[in-house]
Structures are given as structure tokens and as C-alpha cells.
From TrEMBL:
Keywords: Hydrolase, Membrane, Transmembrane, Transmembrane helix. SUPFAM superfamilies: Acylphosphatase/BLUF domain-like (SSF54975). The keyword Chaperone does not apply. The lineage of its organism: Eukaryota, Metazoa, Chordata, Craniata, Vertebrata. This is Acylphosphatase. Its EC number is 3.6.1.7. GO terms for molecular function: acylphosphatase activity. Belongs to the acylphosphatase family. It comes from Balaenoptera acutorostrata.
Length: 158
């Protein structure tokens, strides 16, 4: 997943940062002992920089952090119970958020929850959906670390 665990993975091969705060995201050493490693990971991931704290696996770091991400799914996703299945899958994973049809024939929404669960839902939105749907592609935007969930449930917006 991360080729060099001591360097911010959002750096391009030429060493130039690709993340939102370019002046901040340089080569970030993480070999020194870190106090509050989880906090550092949460802070850096807000800029698109995931680092691995010593003794902390990437899956543990990602799984404990709450994130929010917007999504839009393209293809045959309306009139095939896509919203209902999305709500059910989100609830099954313990996520919160919402889903709605758009006037452009897509389905959009927002997911919030632990990173590992959100990643699972993103894969589901890209590859599975409802039984009668046909997904061309899914886009995910505005991903950010959050301190608390903004919703208490996963809702279908009409």
C-alpha cells in the first residue's frame, strides 16, 4: 500500500507533493518515536498524507479514524432499488449518511464512519450495487477526517 512507510505517499515520483497543502507535505519522516501517533495520522490525512506511526499498522490507523466522503454513482442506477440497497449496505456496515437520486440519472450521497468500513462501502458502490443495477463508474470527492459523525442514521433522501 505505502512503498516507503517513512515518506508521505502523496509525493509524486519526482518528490513534489500532490496533496492539498503543498508547502506542508514534504518528505515527512516518521522513524522517530511519535507521541499521539493517531492524532498525527488524523491530522496529516486531512491533507491527503497518510503516514504509518512506528508499531502501528496502516489498517489499524485507517480503521480507527472517522472519515466523511461524498459519492456519485453513474450507470443504470435509478429505478433498480439502488438507493434501498445502498441504505441497507451502509446500515449493515454501521455507516451513517444519505443517498438520493439526481436529475442527471445518477445516485449521489455521503458516507461517514470508520475508514475501513467506508472503504468497504466504496468498493460496494463501485462494483456491486443493487442486483438489477449496472454501474459504469463511481466517483468519490471531498474526503476528510471528522471528529464526530454528522448523522445518526443512513437515510434515503427523496
Amino acid at each position: 500500500m505505502v512503498s516507503d512507510p517513512g515518506v508521505c505517499p502523496s509525493l509524486a515520483k519526482d518528490g513534489a507533493p500532490r496533496c492539498a497543502l503543498k508547502s506542508f507535505c514534504r518528505r515527512i519522516p516518521v522513524s522517530a518515536p511519535l507521541a499521539g501517533g493517531g492524532l498525527l495520522i488524523a491530522f496529516l490525512s486531512t491533507f491527503g498524507c497518510l503516514v504509518r506511526a512506528p508499531g502501528l499498522s496502516m489498517s489499524m490507523a485507517e480503521g480507527d479514524t472517522l472519515i466523511s466522503v461524498d459519492y456519485e454513482v453513474f450507470g443504470k442506477v435509478q429505478g433498480v432499488f439502488f438507493r434501498k440497497y445502498t441504505q441497507a449496505e451502509g446500515k449493515k456496515l454501521g455507516l451513517v449518511g444519505w443517498v438520493q437520486n439526481t436529475d442527471q440519472g445518477t445516485v449521489q450521497g455521503q458516507l461517514q464512519g470508520p475508514t475501513s468500513k467506508v472503504r468497504h462501502m466504496q468498493e460496494w458502490l463501485e462494483t456491486r450495487g443493487s442486483p438489477k443495477s449496472h454501474i459504469d463508474r463511481a466517483s468519490f470527492n471531498n474526503e476528510k477526517v471528522i471528529l464526530k459523525l454528522d448523522y445518526s442514521d443512513f437515510q434515503i433522501v427523496k
